[in-house]
Amino acid sequence: MKKIIIIIFIISLFLTLFSQENLAGDITDFSSDIIKNDIYLKVKIDDISIQYDLWVRTGDIQILKNIDLQIDELIKNYGELSELQYLKGIMYMYYYKDYDKALEYLKKSSDKNPKNAYTYFLMGNIYVQLNDYNKAFLELNKAIKLEPNNDTFIYLYALIYESIDENHFAIEYLNKALKINKNHEYYISRGNNYAHIGEYEKAILDYDEALNILNNMINNKGNLDKQDLYYRIMYKKATLFRYMYEEEKGLVLIDEIIKNIDKISNDYFQKIVYLEKVNLLYDLKRYDEGIEIYQNLLLDSKEYYFCALYAKLLYKINDPSESINILDKIEDLDEEYKLDFVSYLRGINFISLKEYKKALNEINKTNFNFDISYRDKNFLLKGLIYEALNEEKMALNYYKIYLEKIEDKDIKNRYELIKANKEVENIEVFIEDLYKQRKLLY
C-alpha cells in the first residue's frame, strides 16, 4: 500500500517539466537546444504533458496508448533526445509496468542529460518498487544534490523510510521538507510517523496543521475535492484520542464527521467512521448505543470486516451465541487471515458457551501466519480448553509453550500449581476472570 501511495504521489510531479514556462526559460536541468529552437517539437511535448495530466485525472488507458504512439513518432523523427527517452521511461514505468525497461530509458536520458534531477528521482522510485532501497537512496541522493531545496525529493526520501518502518529517519526528512514547504501532505505524513512510534500528542499537532491548511483550501480556494481527505485526517485524530484514553474528545470529532457525512464520497469510509464511533462507545461502556449503530450499519451485510468487528463486540459484551450467528453470515472468506480470525472468534465464543470440543475444533483451524501475537494466544486457548476437558498433560504442554513466548503471571502460577498436583481455581471461573481482563481477545 505504501508503495502505491509513493507512485500516485510522483505521477504528477514530472508534468511541470514540459510546461511552457520551463521550455521558454533558460533552465539547466531539462530542455535541449533542439527543443528550444523547434516550435513544433516544443508544442508536441507540451501537448503530451497535458495528455499525461488528463490521464492522471481520468485514468483512461487509451490516453496512454495515444501518448506512446506520439513519443515513438517523435523518436523516429528527432532521434534519441534525452527528453524523449525520459518520456519513454515514464511510459514503461506507468503504462507497461516494465521497470527494467523503464530504467533502461531513464538511464539513457540521464547519460545524455545528467543535469535533470527528475530522471534520478523517477529511477529512485522504480528501485523502491523493486525493493532495492539502497539503489533508491543512491538515485535520490543524485536528485537532491542537483536540487537540494526540492521538497518533493526530500518527501520521497521520507516516504521510503516510512515504508520500511524507519520512522525516526522519516520524521527527520519530513522536518527538512516542511522547512521548505508547509505542505499538508508533509504534516499528515509526519503525523502518521509520530503515531506509529506512539507520540500521539505530536501526531495530533501535525494533523491539526494539515486540517487548517485543508480547511483553507476547501473554504477559501474552493478545493472541494479535498473534503474526503479533511475528514479522514479528523478520523485519524479521533482514533488517536482513543489510544490516549481520551474517548470523549474522539467522540466529539467522530460526531462532527457524521454530521457532515454527506460530504464524504467514499461509502466504505462512511461505514468506517461509524465503526470508530462504536469503538469509542465501547470504551465508554455505552454498549447499547454501539449495538444499535452496528445493527443499523450492517442490516443484511455479509462483509467480513463489518461482521467480524460486530461479532467481536458481541463477544466482549458477553453475547457469544449472537456473535457466532453473525460470524456464520460472512461470505467473503477468501483470504487466510480472514479464515484465521473468524475461526479464532468462533473458538473463544464456544469457550464462553462451555462447548470446549467445538472451541478446540475452531482453534485448530487457525495458523495466524500474519499475526504472531494471536498465534501465541492460540497456545493459551488450547491449554485452557484441554484443562476444561480434563486432559491435564495436554494442558500443561500448551501452557508451557505459551509461557516460553509470553510473560503471564496468572498462567505461570496456574501452570506451576497443576504441575505440583496442588489445588487450583475452577477452570470455568478462571476463564471468566481472563475474559474480564480481556486476555483472550485484543
From TrEMBL:
Keywords: Repeat, TPR repeat. TPR repeats lie at residues 117-150, 184-217. PANTHER family: TETRATRICOPEPTIDE REPEAT PROTEIN 6, UDP-N-ACETYLGLUCOSAMINE--PEPTIDE N-ACETYLGLUCOSAMINYLTRANSFERASE SPINDLY-RELATED. The keyword Electron transport does not apply. This is Tetratricopeptide repeat protein.
